[in-house]
Amino acid sequence: MFENNYLSLIIFAPLAGAVINWFFGKRANSEMFSGAVACTAVGISTVVAFMIAFGIGTPHQGALFIPEGKPVLDHIWTWIQVGDFRADFGLGMDRLSGIYALFVTFVGLLIHIFATGYMHGDKGFYRFFAYLNLFMFSMLTLVLADNFLLMFVGWEGVGLCSYLLIGYYINKDEARRAAKKAFVMNRIGDWGVLMGVFLIFTITGSVSFFDKAVDGQAVQSVFSWVQNSANVSQADPFTWGAIFAGGLTSVGVLLFIGATGKSAQIPLLTWLPDAMAGPTPVSALIHAATMVTAGVYLVVRCNSIYQLAPTAMFIIAVIGAATAIFAATIGLAQNDIKKVLAYSTVSQLGYMFLACGVGAFVAAIFHVMTHAFFKALLFLGSGSVIHGMHHEQDMRRMGNLKKYMPITFFTMVTGWLAIAGIPFFAGFFSKDEILYKTFAAQGLGNWNYFLWGIGIVTAVLTAVYMTRMMVMTFWGSERFHQELPEEDQADHDDDDHHEIPADFKPHESPWTMTVPLVALAVLSTFGGLVGIPYALSSLPVVSSIVGEEANHFEETLKPVVKKLGADESHGAESEVKHFLAEGSSEEAAAHHSPEEIAAERWLALFSVLLAAGGIAIGWFMFAGNPLRKMPKVLERKWYLDEIYNKAIVDPITEGSRRFLWKGFDLGFIDGTINGLGSFVTEIGSLFRRIQVGFVRSYAAIILFGALVVLGYFIYYAYRTIG
Amino acid sequence: MMNIFLAELADPNVSIPLVLPEMLLALTGILVMIYDSIRPGRRRVTGTISMVGLILSAVALFWIWSTPGQQLSAFGGMIVADSLRMSFTAVFLLVSALTILVSTVWVEREDVHAGEYHTLLLFATVGMMFMASGNDLVIIFLGLETLSIATYVMAGLRRRDLRSNESALKYFILGSYASGFLLYGMALVYGATGTTNVTQIALNTETAQFPALLLVGAAMLVIGFGFKVATVPFHIWTPDVYEGAPSPVTGFMAAGPKAAGFASFLRVFVLGFPLVVGVQASEFLHDSWITALTVMAILTMTVGNIAAIVQNNVKRMLAYSSIAHAGYAMVGFVGAGVAKTATGRDDAIAAVAFYMLTYAVTNLGAFAIVTLVARKNDRRTEFEDYNGIGFRSPVLAFSLSLFMLSLLGLPLTAGFIGKVLVFRPALEAGTSLMVILVVIAVINTAISAYYYLRLIVVMFFRERTEEWSQPKISTALAAVLAITIIGVFYFGIFGNNVIEMFSKYPVDVQMR
Fold it and tell me: Which pTM was predicted?
């Protein structure tokens, strides 16, 4: 076991930053001060995270390299210990949380720097950074927690910060509504997580993530309980009944309900697009790169549970695929630049869950990471555009911005190519791996081909809508004074969008904003090279550059995603073979049969063609006519909000008003209380009039009680006599 | 058996260190009394002397606590030094110290004769300490009477206020009445078992002279102790007395004497009347007191909570809430009674002590603010008087909200850990009666949210119609708030350290 007490610095530095900004930010009244405090705090986290993860200047190996995926632990204090139940306030960095901590801190740092430029001149500057730091604290607690309970603290914390930051423009009605919506939808998911954790404790008697020894007491982790061969045989069958059986499948489904809330999957997806009412750096940090991937983290963290719960896996795969295509179609028809990216995020999250569902947990995390790079880049780029356009978000009033904002343009191009899946950009490798693993998944009947088909269509759609966005924003004619159709104009009434002067020219953003863009563009371009699948890295052309053993990412995560059980009715057998493969390239080659490699290569080529085709379709459809009218049903998001309102929200509101408020609250509770109250008052006044009888009546009541107690005991006493 | 007692009488194995905390505090009480008769009206001096006495006593207590190899009993088994005694004594000392600090405001405002007040408070504390350290019915009764007589007078300290006088008199009459039950119960138990020593009582149940007497005696004890800890239906005196007594005294009575009652109640029943399998008298006795206390616990928390909902007076609301909390503590008590192992039992006893500690800290914090808001003669104690003070006096309002949330049992506050710990032993016993008890306790917690949150709502969301002049927070009161707020968080987050301390010296009675 490796202890490193500096681990807590990663979470407590942002907390300290938040506290300082909260208490002194207003008094200091200086953007310089608030920005510096916030960025330094996250900077400290970043440096420490990198040091511990890579073992720079630490007495032990880096957390990413410790054999068998053992974690670096930091037991801060024993939070609660009652009988068998024990929850520590303790952190642990293993390979999975290490990767998360790395990209969360690093992308977070870039976005903090970006925000100092973007939020310039805002009245609540210090408040914004206090929230942002608090978010970093919560997110890192979520990721680094060494047990479910502390993870839930982080889980709730990010929910709270998300609420605060979506509603940051407190004077905008849209923002307030969106914040409330996000909060309520997340609560539904949180219920699932809580129930799941309760059930986990009931089943396994532990809430810890890692085997460890604290206070001389050995703690068995949930997962080693599950992996224990005696318990593996408890794998649930692939039946719908297993969901309600209270076994591991129920745990899996409950935790996934939480994941759908946090990661905006069907049916809890509508809050994320609305959440774009928050400031753009918030959208980039919370609603694209980090918080929304917490659901994926939870699922991958619990992969040993899911491996024994095929029904839950299947549900995840189907929901993921459905969300991916559903959100992609909506993304086609949005005119708000941030809304396009929001639906794109939902769609990409769908991909990640699809990967989890078919057992490709490593691919899911890989996509989480590359997505964090390119989606943060795209969001920050859109922020830069919005900044340059004086808070105009409607793409119909943009156009030809490449002339005015060259850096933003070039960086966003890399993001665009990455998400579309053009080879050697980051998104290509991760998306391709997910599609291949879906195609090759076993135990799903023929469902895997169907899911793969959806994935392919989604990939095309992704390329189309991203091309549309790029074309509308950066190419074509300048439409800065374009009149919008009436209905849409209304949406922007309460925006802080100012009337654009006639001689308006967009401007490039300051360096605080462009530097993070460039850094993220580099990552979006080269970040995928850490995880080149074997099928591609063994191509002669590629291996001559990167070497055959190029999939460092999968190597790293192997111990976290251990394959369980010998014979498993469901899930990704080929995946298993990958995991069973040990280090050297010969063995790797041995476990990659030539047919598989060939299939993977063909599929990769196919998806490249599709991506190129999608871009071409997008280009030809929108380059000439960027304002092409899109189908109404897509623009209105399949009327999902309307359906939810009609089917769920309205009945609940109505029911609450009629029954709970008027009936129960006013009628029953108030009635009882008023009734009881007047009853008590009357009795009281009665007593007060006969003051002498007061104590006596009390004595009588006591005597009465005494007689009851005595009688009860005497009954037993009588039995002792016989 | 008798020979052992004779031997003990011949050599009573006196041990001064073991009663040092009590002795120091009693001496301080006498000192304050004498000083006050020579130079009356020096409230700061008497207060300081009292605080010093409490601190010395605490030092002595922790010395006993942390010295390994300490003898476990002295004075012929009448005084013991086990965790039950230590942990409860720590609660009493903390309660007294906080009460002295809280009362500074009231003492100055109403020009109370502080010397008397401090003396009485110290003697009451000594009484409570003997109730916890006594392992003998006689010592327990002596402690209880010392405590009671002092508190009767304290309740009536506002001599010119009719409500205070009424409160004192009612308390005195009903208290004496309950003491009668208690004493008679002790006599019957002595008659049945031939001893007043709790450890011996447990051993003698098998050879009880006349088991029926033992059962009737136990019933009388239930009534007597039930009155002290205010369980339904013996709670009936509480609301009137709590409302009439001065606010700091009310806070003291809800935290200190109640905890003391629990200390003796626990010792006599859990350790004195344990379940001895195969002995009919013991089985009947155990069975009947467990069932009786379970029913009383259910009634106590339900009645306390429902009555608290309809109150419009904050002090009365807190009085009923204290009844409800006695009900929760009894869940742990019953849990200790049904524990199957000695460790389980000791953990449950430590849990009850911890619960009383968290309740005391939270409750005294709340009463400190109530005292401050109430002004002279406790005039402003209605809910209406708290309308809209939230952002006008944020320190008071946020602290009071914190205390309400802790009383409710929100996670990260002391109240949460306290509730978890007392509910657990009962749940672990696993019998259906215990599970029902815990389920009802949890439902009651939910009910209590209504009136605790109501105070927060009133403070933050109601418009204030009359003007509000911010009360001045004196240094002493600021200290109380600091201690209680830190306490609420410390016990809520690091509660484990305290629990470990509280179960350091297991009680010296083996399970059979």
Answer: 0.74
